[in-house]
Amino acid sequence: MVAAPGAAAVGSLVWRPAFRSRNAVAYLVSRSWRSDAKAADIGALKAAKRTCAPDVLDAAAADVALVAAALGGPLTGWTVTTVPCGHSRRPDCFGKQLAQRCAGRLGLPFLQVWADRFVSGVSHPKEFAKLPPLEWQADPPGPMLLIDDVATSGWHIEEGLTALRARGVAALGLVWIGGEVAPPRPERASAPPPAAAGSYTWWLPGS
Question: May I ask the CATH architecture of the domain 17-181?
Answer without folding.
Answer: 3-Layer(aba) Sandwich (3.40)
